[in-house]
Amino acid sequence: MKKVLVINSSVSQLNNSDSLAMSNMFIEEYKKMNPNDEIINLDLNEAKMSQKTLTRNNIAEYFNQEDSFDFIEQLKSVDKIVLNFSMVNWGIPAILKNYIDHITIANLTFTYKGSTDGNAIGLLSNIQDIQILATKGGTGTPNSAFTEYVKNIWEFLGAKVKSEIIINEMMDIPPYAEQTPIENLEKVKEQILKAVKNF
User: Fold this and answer.
1) Could you tell me which residue ranges the Flavodoxin-like fold domain spans (predicted)?
2) Strand ranges in the chain using DSSP code E only, listed in sequence order
3) Which of 6, 18, 106, 130 could join 135 in a cystine, given CB atoms 3.0 to 4.6 angstroms apart?
4) How far apart are CA 38 and CA 113, in angstroms?
5) Is residue 19 marked as binding?
């Protein structure tokens, strides 16, 4: 039995989130194929930790049991992650950045101890795969500070990102802007179904 952590990083309302709809479809199909696997849900909108941005004024207490270590323990207990989010001003939502900052800690999720080439050694190697499901308002914006950044940070922490990143684009452009998230799933449905089989 595998443990799958589903992280919702969308800041849209629950009934109006295209990336959450992608995640829900992915998990529904995954459970059909893997009924015995445990699904763990984490909504960053509901986590106090994700509301806290690191500053020089709070760095002394920023990393603590409730906001950091409990989430790191959770990450070390799971086998796979499904992560959804949308592009916000060419980057990722602040709640996801705050989560990343809270769990990226030297000697807990990465270390330079034992490194012979100067590169960090990731300590989340238990995570076998991460499925990134994302949305964009248009098509012309780059992915380097968006999905590629998220992929790179997880790999830095030792997790594997074997699954192909799926991005549903043009969500702010008609006709998609007028459609429901369920209707907009049609654009990426085949990608999602294919990804589930390989996850």
Assistant:
1) 2-190
2) 3-8, 38-43, 80-86, 110-111, 121-122, 129-135, 166-168
3) 18
4) 33
5) yes
Percentage of the chain with pLDDT > 70?
Answer: 100
- Cβ contact 93:43 at 8 Å: no
Q: Does the annotation place 10 within a ligand binding site?
A: yes
Alpha-carbon gap, residue 82 to 130, rounded angstroms: 6
Closest CA to 101 of 57, 131, 64: 64
3-state secondary structure of 158: coil
Return the pLDDT at 118. 87
pLDDT tens digits along 178-187: 999 999 999 9
- Residues paired with 41 in a beta bridge: 6
Domains contained in the chain, number: 1
Spatial distance between the Cα atoms of 123 and 109, rounded to a whole number of angstroms: 5
pLDDT one-digit tens code per residue, 32-78? 999 999 999 999 999 999 999 999 999 999 999 999 999 999 999 99
Query: Could you list the residue range(s) of the whole structural domain that residue 178 is in?
Result: 3-198
Specify the pLDDT at position 88.
96
Identity of residue 63: F
